[in-house]
């Protein structure tokens, strides 16, 4: 508990870390001169925060404000706080962030928390705290989910996360391995990361352009434990890679990203699906998910581990049982090829095709920026406090696109673009 | 720049650090069950933040929210941010804090920043940034200055501060020495710190009770370079040690504290005064201050070092040239006896009698809680964006109390209570 902050030798390559900071500012955010930046980070990510702060100011940022989360403080709350604390959240802070975004600030999140932090805490308290936080965070999250502003997530190899991904290695080795995996997936392990991101964005754009040209009404997923027809929302639009926010700034919200994705129809999902990777949800690992959909709604849900948390998540609100996103990722993606389970959606979702429970992205509609929430709902867009991705793709999945006339086109075979 | 957070051996005694956390929560704040806590801290104070968080939750805190400042991020702004950044501040955050205080949250600040952090930066930029911050912070500061809520400041021995106080020592030695000085001054170097604070509060209460009984209209300070008559505000009240906030909670805002203090009359200060210790003001050291007052207003100001910053401070607003506080501290106080210059007002002001430029404390009036800002002003209370203490006391200062009939009573002789 008595750990001072020290400048110590570190297994994290400082050159690549600084490239990651540059990519976050120049590619991830496309931060504009005079634009403020609101950043959130684990305290352990301080070295990356400092480099991003530097590059944000070099890019002309007005004010960079960083809000740190500390795993020890979170655990102290679970261990010592009175019961009534778990229905509370810092609504004033989130309202302030929403105001900052409304006034033009960009948003950057550094991921890297220990995915298993809360695995030994009372699941009921975890669910209550998450729900209170989701409700309080909604004004700010809406600005991000509606893509009102340019935003970005990058990752830092926290020791607590690295130990989870590489449990058999010493901490320094684990941190170095995770750092190198993050650097490779984020395309900063090469001399011209910004150029590499340009080429990668062009590739993802051509995939989504093809899907948008086909205008499928549904996708049919078949694989071990999965036979699922995912209806697509009326007027859905596929996106992938760089995308333009409503403030006119073209950014790469997720670094890394390998997916093309769109909005399913909340009422038109039928069949059953099995997860192909564990889902790490706010400190709990949920494994071997098996669900059955009827008319878009999950009517049956099981998991070999974390089933209680899964069912609590599904009970968050009506939209938590319906899909808000469907995404296609080839099995040969670099993250999949790494063979690692990151216990972190930002990485694991880019290793495989996936679906997401909960809130849809209004940008994934033709002319989405001008649609009201009511219009989004009328076209099949789902609404919820949550948005949780989980993987159903693998090297054994086949996907057909179904046209309005019922004809089928192969989209993927054995996990690769057909 | 690439400094990961490590749990390393530390020269800071963990037992005394935990006692300091307990004293902050139980004595400094008297945190109530269900009360939220808003904490600010340098990132280097993480070990103390964690212990305070733990003890706050044990005391029944609702939510503990900590906001970290990072010296490297501050320097990155000065070195890289566009010029227009320096007229900006995170107003949305301070407005949110003001809302949290209005809703019942307590406030704890951990001090310990490098007092010389900005000494090599452009003084004009420092002044602009400070002014923008003062304006933005005003809604939150008013809740603190008006004593609407229970609040507290404690200190952590940051390495960058320790190196300043003990420049001839290795960093670990400097941190250990500063930690021990903080622990002694904060009365946590004994077995029953909470009991020690009870006795200390009783002693300070008896001093202020005597001064309140005397009802002096002015104090006359005489010493090397000082011949100053400080008129006291009409209906002023002396305070010292524990005090009851408007929310009904009795707390010790400053840890350490050795002073009894009240509100001078903003229009009735005459003569000249010289500082007896350097003033460390937001990164600049201001030394050998010499000022002349006419009708309460500083009409002439000099300093051997930092004069430009001093004059910028005085130009903040009209109230910045007038006094908002006068405080009495015996020369034999433990902090004075340590012989150290802490470059930190929280400590240095408790080593000597001092005056403060700027905003007065409305609690330092009889029935102060019920006075409007207009009534405070009518009775002589000063108003300003700033509140800056500086030392005029020493072992050579004599102070007389002047009664309404002009008669004089010795208050201090050679720096000690007469």
TrEMBL record, chains A, B:
GO biological process entries: proteolysis
The keyword Hydrolase appears for this protein: yes
Entry's EC annotation: 3.4.11.-
UniProt-recorded Gene Ontology molecular function terms: aminopeptidase activity; metal ion binding; metallopeptidase activity
Enzyme type, top EC level: hydrolase
Pfam families listed in its UniProt record: Peptidase_M29
Cofactor(s) of this protein: Mg(2+); Zn(2+); Co(2+)
InterPro entries: M29_Exopeptidase, M29_N-terminal, Peptidase_M29
Keywords of the record: Aminopeptidase, Hydrolase, Metal-binding, Metalloprotease, Protease
Keyword Hydrolase: yes
Family named by the database record: Belongs to the peptidase M29 family.
Entries under PANTHER family matching the protein: AMINOPEPTIDASE, AMINOPEPTIDASE AMPS
Record-given protein name: Aminopeptidase
């Amino acid at each position: 508990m008595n750990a001072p902050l020290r400048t110590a030798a570190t297994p994290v390559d400082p050159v690549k870390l600084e490239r990651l900071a540059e990519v976050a500012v120049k590619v991830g955010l496309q931060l504009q001169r005079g634009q403020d930046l609101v950043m959130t980070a684990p305290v352990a990510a301080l070295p990356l925060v400092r480099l991003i702060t530097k590059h944000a100011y070099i890019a002309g940022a007005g004010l960079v404000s960083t809000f740190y989360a500390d795993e020890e403080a979170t655990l102290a709350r679970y261990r010592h706080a009175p019961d009534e604390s778990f229905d509370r959240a810092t609504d004033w802070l989130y309202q302030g962030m929403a105001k900052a975004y409304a006034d033009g600030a960009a948003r950057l999140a550094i991921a890297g928390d220990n995915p298993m932090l809360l695995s030994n805490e009372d699941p009921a308290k975890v669910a209550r705290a998450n729900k209170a936080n989701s409700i309080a965070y909604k004004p700010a999250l809406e600005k991000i989910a509606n893509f009102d502003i340019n935003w970005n997530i990058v990752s830092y190899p926290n020791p607590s996360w690295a130990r989870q991904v590489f449990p058999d290695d010493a901490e320094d080795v684990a941190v170095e391995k995770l750092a190198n995996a993050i650097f490779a997936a984020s395309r900063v392990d090469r001399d011209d990361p910004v150029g590499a991101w340009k080429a990668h964005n062009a590739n993802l754009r051509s995939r989504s352009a093809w899907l948008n040209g086909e205008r499928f009404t549904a996708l049919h997923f078949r694989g071990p434990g999965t036979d699922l027809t995912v209806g697509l929302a009326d007027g859905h639009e596929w996106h992938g890679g760089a995308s333009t926010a409503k403030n006119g700034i073209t950014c790469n919200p997720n670094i890394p990203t390998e997916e093309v994705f769109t909005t399913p129809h909340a009422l038109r999902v039928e069949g059953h699906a099995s997860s192909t990777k564990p889902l790490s949800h706010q400190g709990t690992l949920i494994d071997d998910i098996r669900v059955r959909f009827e008319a878009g709604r999950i009517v049956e849900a099981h998991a070999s581990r974390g089933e209680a948390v899964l069912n609590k998540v599904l009970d968050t609100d009506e939209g938590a049982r319906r899909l808000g996103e469907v995404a296609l990722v080839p099995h040969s993606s670099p993250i999949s090829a790494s063979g690692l389970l990151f216990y972190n959606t930002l990485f694991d979702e880019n290793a495989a095709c996936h679906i997401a429970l909960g809130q849809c992205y209004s940008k994934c509609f033709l002319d989405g920026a001008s649609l009201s929430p009511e219009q989004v709902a009328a076209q099949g867009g789902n609404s919820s406090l949550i948005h949780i991705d989980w993987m159903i793709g693998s090297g054994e999945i086949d996907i057909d696109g179904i046209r309005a006339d019922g004809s089928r086109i192969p989209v993927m075979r054995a996990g690769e673009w057909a």
